[in-house]
Write a structure and sequence with these properties.
The complex is a heterotrimer of chains A (106), B (130) and C (280). With 130 residues, chain B is mostly helical. Chain B has five helices and no strands. Chain B has one domain (16-129). The longest helix of chain C is centred in the C-terminal third of the chain and has 18 residues, at 262-279. Classes of the chains: A alpha+beta (106), B mainly alpha (130), C alpha/beta (280).
Chain lengths: 106, 130, 280
């Protein structure tokens, strides 16, 4: 099982991880629109129109961050959104964005 | 304005003439309709990617007001998100293209400004056809 | 002398005895349906909601869960096909804000694969879901999807496991079943014998009457309770399912060949003849 250490990460670092790639963006959108989605990596990859091979490394980043979690059900490994962690991380992101003045000055 | 969920159109057709052949009133109405679709798409994209709290913060910084001005929107997004801006722009374009029936190619390098221009022209063509 | 009957077909005695246990019933929130069920479903029962595509199974199931939330009973909607996003949108059309209920931990829409629900033992998918919000009501949309992952011969056993799992936890479940056709006097609405496993069957059927499509609802079975045995017309309105009067002027609706009852035909002929005479 993958675990991250997001408690020590700043809002900007969290943001960098969340929006690190288009696939991660697609995964975020998928799970935020469907927070009750619980499925295998293969099924999730299909849902965003990708292959398992292209998705798995991106999924790993989000698992390490903690926004997604993984568990074994029978013979299958499934992935699902950790709603509480997701709220916490997005709050950190929001707090970070509040401090930024448009133009890049803090 | 009617938006389509499917039936891809050719985004590279000669749509450039669409806006020129419209009178001012038609053009104004079409621009307004496109702006409305774009703003709602940006709201959905940012809200779905980063949640509603983040969306409201961006709205308070005037980001949504600049949605139709792709250069300014891109600049502000870069200030706030750095490299992550490109990911958000892709999400916006993907959603916008889906609504307008324009094919989206995730392999191609994204030119946000050009993508919005194509979407705008498709909207104008749709408005003329009504 | 027969006991007076209410518009739902229940005798005064039936209504009295069912009123005693009405407080224990699981209300659907659809007033007329609760009357047909003499107060609601029995607590902890497994209810099959069978019907072909477009008959309003999802709407009725959502309405059942939303009503439960209003009564303080958390609910879970398990979907195998439609994504939660679609369910949220459909529910919003009826004025039901499922996302808000989820934020309040009163509701969950779970989207997963049927084979994951079938996995039993510690740490099963349903275990986590039940632990999360302690639901009293649960909908599975739909049990028919299990057929994709289970051999036909094993279907009954697998369905039994799921039903037993929910019943032993005291959860009042509604299990959707996509049936191509419900006809005849048989209780069998599935071709794998599931109708014998459930405690109650509510069937939804589109019917053609006088060149227009209408919808019919009937309670085919209800263990341990009397119920209205008539076919009632229903509509899907902007507020959800609304049940109208019984199809008392027609027969043969379930068989797919509706026709006016003899007495109604006679009345029509009589009216027709009467009109002609007046004109003459």
């Amino acid at each position: 099982m993958f675990r991250g250490e997001p408690d020590e990460m700043s809002g900007s670092e969290i943001l960098l991880t969340l929006l690190g790639s288009e696939i991660r963006g697609d995964l975020l959108v998928l799970f935020h629109k469907n927070p009750g989605l619980i499925d295998t990596v293969d099924a999730i990859a299909r849902r965003i129109g990708r292959t398992t091979v292209t998705v798995i490394s991106e999924l790993r980043e989000l698992l390490e961050l903690g926004v997604l979690r993984q568990k074994r059900i029978g013979a299958s490994e499934v992935v699902f959104l950790d709603r509480a962690k997701d709220r916490e991380l997005l709050e950190s992101v929001a707090n970070h964005l509040k401090t930024i003045r448009i133009g890049g000055e803090k | 304005m009617r938006t389509r969920e499917s039936s891809p159109t050719n985004p590279h057709g000669n749509f450039g003439s669409a806006s020129r052949s419209m009178d001012l009133d038609q053009r104004f109405a079409a621009e307004k309709a496109f702006s409305s679709v774009l703003v709602s798409t940006v709201r959905e994209a940012v809200g779905n990617a980063l949640g509603h709290n983040v969306l409201e913060i961006l709205a308070s910084k005037g980001l949504l007001d600049d949605a139709s001005n792709s250069k300014e929107f891109d600049r502000k997004l870069q200030s706030l998100f750095g490299n992550g801006a490109a990911v958000l722009e892709r999400i916006v374009v993907k959603d916008l293209n889906r609504k307008l029936g324009i094919p989206y190619n995730s392999e191609a390098r994204l030119d946000y400004e050009k993508s919005l221009e194509i979407a705008r022209e498709v909207c104008f063509v749709e408005s003329r056809m009504k | 002398m027969t006991a007076p009957r209410s518009k739902t077909g229940a005798s005064a005695f039936d209504l009295f005895s069912s009123k005693v246990e009405e407080g224990l019933r699981v209300k659907t929130g659809i007033v007329e349906l609760d009357e047909m069920l003499r107060g609601g479903f029995m607590p902890g029962d497994a209810v099959m909601l069978a019907g072909s595509a477009g008959t309003g199974k999802t709407t009725l199931a959502l309405q059942y869960l939303v009503s439960g939330v209003k009564l303080g009973e958390p609910g879970v909607y398990v979907t195998f096909e439609e994504l939660p996003d679609q369910i949220y949108r459909d529910a919003k059309n009826f004025g039901w804000d499922l996302r808000k209920m989820e934020e309040q931990d009163k509701f969950r829409v779970i989207c997963t694969s049927p084979n994951l629900v079938l996995e039993s033992g510690d740490g099963s998918l349903l275990d986590d879901v039940l632990h999360d919000i302690q639901p009293r009501r649960l909908v599975i949309d739909s049990l028919s999807h299990l057929e994709m992952f289970v051999k036909k011969d094993d279907m009954r056993m697998e369905a039994y496991r799921v039903i037993r799992y929910l019943k032993t936890r005291g959860i009042s479940s509604v299990l959707l079943w996509e049936s191509p056709q419900i006809s005849g006097a048989s209780f069998s609405v599935t071709d794998v014998g599931l109708s014998f496993l459930v405690d109650c069957i509510v069937a939804l059927k589109p019917v053609e009457i006088e060149s227009s499509m209408r919808k019919a609802l009937v309670v085919l079975k209800m263990r341990g309770s009397d119920h209205d045995k008539r076919l009632r017309e229903y509509e899907i309105t902007s507020a959800g399912i609304k049940i109208e009067s019984a199809f008392s002027n027609y027969e043969g609706i379930i068989s797919g060949s509706p026709r006016k009852v003899a007495s109604e035909k006679f009345m029509e002929m009589f009216r027709g003849a009467s009109e002609k005479q007046k004109k003459a």
